[in-house]
Amino acid sequence: MTTTATETPTTNVTPTTSLPKETASPGGTASVNTSFDWESICGKTPLEEIESDISRLKKTFRSGKTLDLDYRLDQIRNLAYAIRDNENKIRDAIKADLKRPDFETMAAEFSVQMGEFNYVVKNLPKWVKDEKVKGTSMAYWNSSPKIRKRPLGSVLVITPWNYPLILAVSPVLGAIAAGNTVALKMSEMSPNASKVIGDIMTAALDPQLFQCFFGGVPETTEILKHRWDKIMYTGNGKVGRIICEAANKYLTPVELELGGKSPVFVTKHCSNLEMAARRIIWGKFVNGGQTCVAPDYVLVCPEVHDKFVAACQKVLDKFYPNNSAESEMAHIATPLHYERLTGLLNSTRGKVVAGGTFNSATRFIAPTIVDGVDANDSLMQGELFGPLLPIVKAMSTEAACNFVLEHHPTPLAEYIFSDNNSEIDYIRDRVSSGGLVINDTLIHVGCVQAPFGGVGDSGNGGYHGKHTFDLFSHSQTVLRQPGWVEMLQKKRYPPYNKSNEKFVRRMVVPSPGFPREGDVRGFWSRLFN
């Protein structure tokens, strides 16, 4: 039986098939902006100014100005204090766009970003030092091989709308730390936050180092016509492919931070279903479900299915008691995203067991749980990126893994709720994902000491902290060969003879350091490694 979703006030919601052919995708840039006047709020960069702005950044990098460590640290400090001093202004701008509760903005954005500032400033002097290359053969004992971290040049960051502070500031922070000049394209889908954050960053940073661009598709297209030394894009796969096509003209490397349908496994060995429900409901509905690593759907074993659904209903009533447009919960960012989500909800063949109401005037969609969903349901055809949580009954842990592998492989995140280590290891080894959290959701994103990123369809690479520094750096191998070794090096020069070949072979062709047969690692290797 399917329970039809209702709107408050009650109206008919246009199905997704009637939306404009070009629509906004989760986390990305919209091609058509129906009833959404972003331009009057954040404006757009004049197309004729873009080339000169980019040229300025490239000229600055060629000057060598950004190579100085103290200069980089000064810029990072200026940005950190600018963000801190304008917290209320940024918070209010985000609320104007998303109606996001201040608590969520503090916990999900400011806390993580300020922690990353501290981590980078503390460790950057160590990161920029040359690394000694260890374990080389005798052929290199006298040339002192090192790895030097060099900045790439002028880089472009294209940021989404759903977490407008951290997804703009964090990549720029790492790019500056690595010694690059940076251009930042803000999202027009969160115009108030984009304008405020972009202006704060522009005022805080050296204009020779940083440029903020505003606008939509025409401006982004113009920016992508130019050669960049690296591009980082956070958003959806459709736009990501377009960016890769533009970058391919110059063989520009592209870092893609995408999304996908991040699954949650609730197995029969999950002993505390109410705790699992709390953590899943929290992770799903933070920011109105508009989070790239939000639990997209739940795979529940039949042994615990009914109890888990009941626990979710109980938790939802406690977290969001009003369940209306006045609830302390983020609303949907744009009319297009709202129409897409309500269209999917009206088309589902599952049973709405909680929520299901929405309000077009405020773009509010109540936190909604839909049970009895299968792979062919409207809610399972793409990343939801909204406050809709489908529940799929999986007959076994193996069946749940096969479901993911067949329909939504390589998600950005994967969540396992189980107390059985063998079962956890089985799921972990079968399903590849960008990040994995056991018995919780979302928390890996805030660990700035560890890389955050996707795999396969959910992106490539990883960033945060040192990993962002590495992302925008080139690891250059440097060797310094002293002149006095020429008496040995001359053995490598033509004309070749047997005596020289024997000497060089002894220097550069080692024998295998492992046995021909038996245990490759050996007793001592296993004992100490």
TrEMBL record:
GO biological process annotation, one example: aldehyde metabolic process
Active site: E257, C292
Alphabetically ordered keywords of this record: NAD, Oxidoreductase
One example GO MF annotation: aldehyde dehydrogenase (NAD+) activity
Domain Aldehyde dehydrogenase residues, every copy: 48-478
Any Pfam family matching the protein: Aldedh
Biased composition (Low complexity): 1-17
Record has NAD as a keyword: yes
Cellular compartments per GO CC: cytoplasm
Region (Disordered) residue spans: 1-32
Domain of life: Eukaryota
Family affiliation: Belongs to the aldehyde dehydrogenase family.
Name the UniProt record assigns to this protein: Aldehyde dehydrogenase
Biological source species: Yarrowia lipolytica (strain CLIB 122 / E 150) (Yeast)
